Amino acid sequence: MGRLQGKAAVILGASDERSMGFATAKRFVEEGAKVVLAARRGDNVRELADRLGGTSIACDITNEADIAALAAKALEEFGRLDVAVNYSGVDVAESIMESTAEGLRKSSEVHFVGTALFIRHMASAMAHGGSIITTSSLTALAQAPNYAAYAGAKAGADTIVRIAANELGERGIRVNSIAPGFTRSAMTDAYFEMENITKAFIKEIPLGKFVVVEDIAETALWLAAEAGSTTGQVIDVTGGQSLRRVPLPIDFG
Amino acid sequence: MIGRLEGKTALVIGAAGRDNMGQVIARRFAKEGAKVVVAGRRMDELERFAAEIGGKATKVDVTRKADLEAAAKLAKDEFGHLDIALNATGWGLLKGFLETTEEEFDAMSELQFKGPFLFMQSMIAAMDNKAGGRGGSIIQISSATAKIMFHDHAAYMGAKAGTDHLIRVVANEFGTHGIRANSISPGLTESPMTQDAMGVPGLKEAFLKGYPLGRIGTADDIAAAAVFVASDECFMTGENLQISGGLTLRGNPTREDIAASVAAASATE
To answer: Does the keyword Thylakoid apply (chain A) (predicted)?
Structure first.
């Protein structure tokens, strides 16, 4: 019997087959879950959901009505919601001296406000308890140049995760976040094409290999299925890079 | 001008090496008006140094409780009270995790874990305002490596991290006895202990990249922090101060980074 047999899950941020969202959905389905895949662009996600025999919906995390509709979709399709995973993210890279209100707000809308409202609406649909999983970042654990807007919002969201875990524990709802390291995914593909960047990063990873989306999917599965006493935590999936550092621009040669 | 530690008595342990961190701190305490007892294992240097700063010298092996109690008593007998106690003893063993012998581990634990434990016990007894003392500030020198990684330094790092936790325990249990306890963590510091290594071309450069403020630390930086933590202006307890120019925001170089930096420097010579 699968580890998620009888469970219904929503996964937001699954618009590309190279994404953490799709890898997670695939793994969840293998373990018996029924899934709703969601992403900002509805056409891509529909095709991916079809491949897995799941259902899909367009959802922009910066639109609260979309988030509410995502939770409603799970209830409508499956009559329940047990697991909700949020991978939505936007790559905002600006140095402090060049940072803009626009960049800061864009990151906050997705990572900070979005995460909080995602937790709220998913929790309200979880009648039998459940597991809410959101995405932090290596950059919230180790200083990454130019990532103030991104990492600041992610770190703020991690605090919301702790507060939510504290408030929602009595409803049997666990709330955790996963902090991926430098992971090859749809969002980072361009960086992985640059050898000077991959060479500088690999030196800082004790396990000597890059994180892959399947690592993130396995962690999400564990948080969804078995981690019955784990709540309010940031799970570090950086290959140990948080023990070292994020390279500086001068390290890129 | 009135010094910031006027009217206080301080005991500084680990001050038997010429111009080491303990001596730089003790000199600064004296300059700020404190009466200072300096302690360590080599009496000749301690006597010379005590004469320089107008203090007292006493022999202390930090792993022996009787020595620690005697040092606290000396401070009280000579100056009437003990207000500040700082432990700067340490052994910077650089040895691979698997290569570290049981003997080395035991010696490290004795000096850097048991020593601070006995140090805190003895100083609490001398400072406790419910047992004849008038309260005080206990300061332990820790290390940035108790928080961030460095290679071949496991025994040292583990003992320092354990001691930081003891500091929290003491702060929690003895705050109402008038005692504050904190630790101060230097990064790489220019000192007699690191002088030889710093002479190797390329070595310092490998570390420097990890320092947002653009330089490694000095014992004077640590002394300045110690004066604040020692003074009555400081309401902090149970804390660990990182006095390393932002090193913990970045990190130490790996073994390979250091080797590459040294090789590059020697190639251009």
So the answer is: no
